[in-house]
Amino acid sequence: GDVAVLVPAAGAGVRLGPGGPKALRLLGGEPLLVHAVRRLAAAPSVHTIVVAAPAAEVTAVRDLLAPVAPVTVVPGGAERQASVAAALAAVPAGPEIVLVHDAARALTPSDLVESVAAAVRAGRDAVIPVLPVVDTIKEVGVDEVVLGTVDRSALRAVQTPQGFRRAVLTAAHAAAGDPLTDDAGLVEKQGVPVSCVPGSEYALKITRPFDLALAEHLLVTGG
Ligand code: CTP
Ligand code: MG
C-alpha cells in the first residue's frame, strides 16, 4: 500500500442527539469508528491509518482499534479542519497519496477507497467521490422566501474518502484560513483542480438519528 488515510473522528455528534462522541456511538453493537477503520484497512492500497480522536478518548480509542488494524491515534481539534491537520502532521515519511475519511461514513465500501486512491495514483492531484443531487434545490432568503431554483444538473453531493497527492494536501492545510467542512475546499482555494469519481450510497454520512437507523438496516442487509 502507498496510501495513508486520515480519519477525523473527534466530533461531538450534536446532530445525532445525546449519547457521547459520534465516532464511539454503536452501530450493530460496534462503534462507528470500528466499522470505518475495518473497511479502510481492508483496502489493499491502505498502508497507514491515522485517527484524530476526541482529546479525552485518545487512550480508549487506541485500545478499541488495536484489535482492528494498526493505527496511530492523535487528539483532534475543535473543528474538523484542525482534526485533519493534527492527523496529517502524524503521517510518517513514505506514503505519497493521502486520503481523508470521516469516521461518520462508517459503511463506506473498501472499493470506494480503492477507486479514489487509484484516481490519484493515475495522476489526479485531488479526487472526491460524488453523487448526483436528487432533490430540487431552492435558494432562500429571509423568512424562508424562495429566491430561485438552482440548476440541479450542475450540482453534486460530496462524500469521503477524498484523495490527494500528499504535497497538495500539506500545502493546502498550511495555507488554510477559516475552517471548511471538507479538504477539497482547501485545495480548490489553492487553484488546484479537483476531480470527481462516482460515490456510493453506502458512504452516507451518519449525521442524524434517521441516518443511524438507515445504517443499521444497511448493515443487516449487506452494507
Ligand atoms: N470531526 C472531527 N473533529 C471535529 C469535528 C468533526 O474530527 N472537531 C469529524 C467527525 O468526528 C466526523 C467528521 O469530522 O467523523 C464529519 O463531521 P460531522 O459529521 O459534522 O460530525 P460531528 O461534528 O461529530 O457531528 P455534529 O456536527 O452533529 O456535532
Ligand atoms: Mg460537525
TrEMBL record:
Q: What is its EC number?
A: 2.7.7.60
GO BP term (any one): isopentenyl diphosphate biosynthetic process, methylerythritol 4-phosphate pathway
Pathway in which the depicted protein is active: Isoprenoid biosynthesis; isopentenyl diphosphate biosynthesis via DXP pathway; isopentenyl diphosphate from 1-deoxy-D-xylulose 5-phosphate: step 2/6
Q: What class of enzyme is it?
A: transferase
| Membrane spanning stretches | none
Q: Which GO terms describe its molecular function?
A: 2-C-methyl-D-erythritol 4-phosphate cytidylyltransferase activity
Keyword Nucleotidyltransferase assigned: yes
Does the keyword field hold Transmembrane helix? no
The chemistry this enzyme catalyses reads:
2-C-methyl-D-erythritol 4-phosphate + CTP + H(+) = 4-CDP-2-C-methyl-D-erythritol + diphosphate
Q: Keywords on this record?
A: Isoprene biosynthesis, Nucleotidyltransferase, Transferase
Q: Which InterPro entries match?
A: IspD, IspD/TarI, IspD/TarI_cytidylyltransf_bact, ISPD_synthase_CS, Nucleotide-diphossugar_trans
Q: Which domain of life is it from?
A: Bacteria
In this UniProt entry, which residues are annotated as the site Transition state stabilizer? 15, 22
Which Pfam families does the entry mention? IspD (PF01128)
Which residue positions hold the site described Positions MEP for the nucleophilic attack? 152, 205
Report the sequence similarity comment from the record. Answer: Belongs to the IspD/TarI cytidylyltransferase family. IspD subfamily.
Q: What does this protein do?
A: Catalyzes the formation of 4-diphosphocytidyl-2-C-methyl-D-erythritol from CTP and 2-C-methyl-D-erythritol 4-phosphate (MEP).
Q: Which HAMAP family match?
A: IspD
Write down what this protein is called: 2-C-methyl-D-erythritol 4-phosphate cytidylyltransferase
- Origin species: Micromonospora peucetia
